[in-house]
Amino acid sequence: MKCIRCENEMKKVNLLTFGGFQIESETKSIFETPETSGVEVFVCNKCGHIELKAKDFRKF
Ligand SMILES: [Zn+2]
Q: Which residue(s) pair with 23 in the sheet?
């Protein structure tokens, strides 16, 4: 993945949080099951820009 700021090739890294983290769609009622996805994190080692990308983005 290219950095949007300086076009350097970004490195895939792990964001360290307790128990990992995911994104989840908002639901309108408690009967709806939200869609969830893991998140990939990339860092540019030239300018420090960090980018997040959903692993399963198509289901949103
Ligand atoms: Zn950069």
A: 37
Q: What is the pLDDT of residues 4-60, one digit of tens each?
A: 999 999 999 988 887 778 899 999 999 999 999 999 999 999 999 999 999 999 999
50 Cβ contact partners less than 8 Å away, ≥ 6 residues apart = 41, 42, 43, 44
Q: Which value, in Å, is the radius of gyration of the alpha carbons in the chain? A: 15
Identify the three-state secondary structure at position 58.
Answer: helix
Distance of CA 22 from the midpoint of ligand 1 (Å): 25
- In the chain, where the domains are located: 11-27+34-59
52 alpha carbon – ligand 1 mean position (Å): 14
